Amino acid sequence: MNTLSLRDPITPLRHLVLVLGDQLDEKASCLEGFDPQQDAIWMAEVDEESTHVMSSKQRSCVFLSAMRHFAQYVQKQNWPLTYTLLDAQDNTGTLAGELDKAILQYMPQGLVMTAPGDWRVLQSLRGVVLRHGLTLDLSDDTHFFSTVRDFAQHAEGRKQIRLEYFYRELRQKHQVLMDGKKPVGGQWNFDADNRSSFGKNGPGHIPAPTRFEPDETTREVMQLVNSRFADHPGSLERFGWAVNRAQALQVLADFIQYRLPQFGQYQDAMWEGEVWLYHSHLSCALNLKLLNPREVVAAAENAFHAGHAPIEAVEGFVRQVLGWREYVRGIYWTQMPDYAERNSMQAQAKLPGFYWTGDTDMACLRDAIGQTLKHGYAHHIQRLMVTGLYALLFGVHPKEVHEWYLAVYVDAVEWVELPNTLGMSQYADAGLMASKPYVASGKYIDRMSNHCKGCRFNPALSTGETACPFTTLYWDYLDKHADTLAQNPRMLMQLKNLNRLSDTERQSIRKQAQNHRLSLRA
Fold it and tell me: 246-256 burial, b if ≥16 CB within 10 A, otherwise e?
């Protein structure tokens, strides 16, 4: 079967309405004014979206399953739909190729689409439309509190574009956690209350994650992905992500009820073998557009006002959705396309092969990468301060790091993944996003987790047989980039500590770092 069409689109059409795999909302802006008597919806599964980076099985499966579930919703509305299946014999393998075929077949007067989340996809589809002499009407994505124009206006004339100031503007504009003109609780930011570890006794009882048994549609996708992308990383044995709106709403309700109260206190904590902890697991549903950020923020805010969750937990969570999510999108769309090529620290190393297998003696990396390959998920501190930190200290080319993150995580769409990886994690944009490189030794991981207790490396040591590679590479990074980092006031304390090391100690660290890098090239 080449298509899943309940009603054949008429020819010619008024509008062909393009719905991408991360736009699965029945109230999407592109569907405003949709007339089933003269318009049709176009969707296509194509190899390109799983192969332009080697998308993990978990990531491919969640997108394809969610797309098929959305197509089923469209069919129930009795709306005209043309939907190309991944294994259709005449599938061209690209979105551009499938759109070209649809335009020739249905001869629409114009095309309509919600603004996509990927620069590459927008340029590709826009090029097809222009070649046919048609118009592509782009509407704002209503799954954000702000528009890219809002962000550009905020950024205009500023020497630095920082999250905190944009976040405060949005809090005030949308009256979220506000008491008149003042923030609820008397302060904008409760980070100081939200950085606890679990302590030596561990997290204790953790609420079960909200996971779903794959239905028939998802099982068909799993079989297809395992067959078509057999050599791609990861496994589908533990697939349980929300793939429709009803499931996404259940994930939201369960997070608010069971994990939000402790989210703030433990949002930076890690523990060996514990994948889910107190995190929301909502980013995938948000980025697929199965949830609207307004309903997510409102649910958290209501939990605070009902006395169910403390302000530090609610504010910390709201800042991720209302603040960070809006901020990185603004950075992406105002800085592309050259943003993807930035490499301010001139990192050139290849990504170590264990990022695709989890086969490493470093316990924290083994745990974070292992769960990533099993579930397509790791929480933000694992991404920033374990996998991202190691890549930064090792000197991996930022584009390789970006492509790995885009490939392995189920919530990865380029608008959100690229700035987080290249800017926040790898400091490749020279501080456009982050005010300093997020660099630390193995002692940070030791403080925030129990990984070091079962690891053969000692986070306190930078040289010797049991020296922690994080610690070795940390001092080597500071040493190598000392002149550049000295221009950043926020790095002066770390450089002061570096300068306490003797020339002999520095030389030993350089040698240890070099040997570590060479050992991974063998």
Answer: ebbbebbebbb
